Amino acid sequence: MSLHTLSHVHRFVPGTEPARPPLLLLHGTGGDENDLLPLGQAILPGAALLSPRGPVLENGMPRFFRRLAEGVFDQSDVRQRANELADFVTEARKRYDLAAPVAVGFSNGANIAAALLMLRPGTLAGAVLIRPMVPLAEMPAVDLRGLPILMLSGAMDPIARPDEARRLAHAFIERGAGLEHRVLPASHGLSQGDVTIAKDWLARSASPAELLANRV
């Protein structure tokens, strides 16, 4: 069931494999705390799952921050909500005795995860960003050296366009992140290819043991 005892309504699914890092699941616009649980279970079986609901409503649809128009983000709100999400992660880690999580975000959830990486480095052990955009007009010069990040973009995505994805990828590389950026023959929606690549990346490029050792 959803929990209301912390700063975000959320679902928590305890892990069955303690060596695997927890996943912070961040849904897209109109989703909720239930949407990405099957994805989390598919890409890292046995991991603990922490899945908050976006606290902002747009025409009744939950989001993680406000936007002024399609692709135009409310910059002050992005910063406020990213910091609030980081505080929630700290709360949840204490409540559930968790290591630093790997974020798995789709669309709006990927955008808030990217902002969280830039604004509160150290909160996350890594990230899988599916169809992300550049969340911040001015990105801080933070040190993301060695942080494992997977970006999955769609070649035919009319929202998170390829040029936008390349800008974000370049920003992560400039800050030292261990980035893998894959462009799929897909549009904006989540595809089976995303699931397969994310599962492989978690097993191959960012081993759970290393994530737990580097970000505790």
Structure explained in plain terms:
With 216 residues, the protein is of the alpha/beta class. The protein has one domain (10-214): Alpha/Beta hydrolase fold, catalytic domain (Rossmann fold). The protein contains 6 helices and 11 strands. The chain has helices spanning 37-43, 75-96, 108-119, 162-174, 192-204, 208-214; strands at 10-13, 23-26, 49-52, 56-58, 61-63, 67-69, 72-73, 102-106, 126-130, 148-154, 178-184. The strands form 3 sheets. Strands 1-3-2-8-9-10-11 form a 7-stranded mixed β-sheet, with helices on both faces. The protein has a two-stranded antiparallel ribbon with strand order 4-5. The model is unreliable at 212-216 (pLDDT under 50).
CATH first level? Alpha Beta
Low-confidence stretches: 212-216
Tally of helical segments: 6
The topology string of helices and strands comes to EEHEEEEEHEHEEHEHH
**Side-by-side strand order of the widest sheet:** 1-3-2-8-9-10-11
Say how many strands there are. 11
What proportion of the residues form beta strands (DSSP E)? 15-25%
Sheet of most strands? 7 strands, mixed
